[in-house]
Write a structure and sequence with these properties.
alpha/beta; Udp-n-acetylmuramoylalanyl-d-glutamate--2,6- Diaminopimelate Ligase, Chain: A, domain 1; 6-stranded mixed beta sheet; 36% helix
Length: 121
């Protein structure tokens, strides 16, 4: 799914657009615990969209570690400028939607975005 489609489907606001904008996102993963994201997501997967309500720098640092190119913040939360600056410095696109996480995931799934593959450990 193209980033423009993600923006349109979730009515997202672009907070930071430095990064690869023509990338085709294959999967999404939603979590507020970055430890879950680090445990479940593999760097070997196709591009993943990280959906979260976390707005501090840990969400960007997690994206950096896992080579996640796009972070979508839910619930219309205010994202600190330091978080946005870290995303910009590392070419991670940051978006924000007013939808709750459940609705955001449902809208994207309905449009064809799949959940990130994971293995039961």
């Amino acid at each position: 799914m193209k980033i423009k489609t993600i923006i349109d489907v979730t009515k997202a606001e672009i907070l930071q657009k430095n990064g690869i904008t023509d990338i085709d996102i294959k999967y999404a993963f939603a979590a507020d615990l970055m430890s879950d994201t680090l445990f479940i997501i593999s760097r070997e997967e196709e591009p993943v969209l990280l959906i979260s309500g976390i707005t501090d720098q840990s969400v960007v640092r997690t994206a950096i570690i896992l080579d996640i190119p796009v972070v979508l913040i839910v619930r219309g939360k205010t994202v600190p400028q330091k978080t946005i600056e870290l995303a910009k410095k590392n070419n991670i696109i940051m978006l924000k939607t007013h939808y709750i996480m459940f609705v955001t995931c449902g809208l994207l799934y309905k449009e064809g975005l799949k959940g990130a593959p994971w293995q039961k450990r």
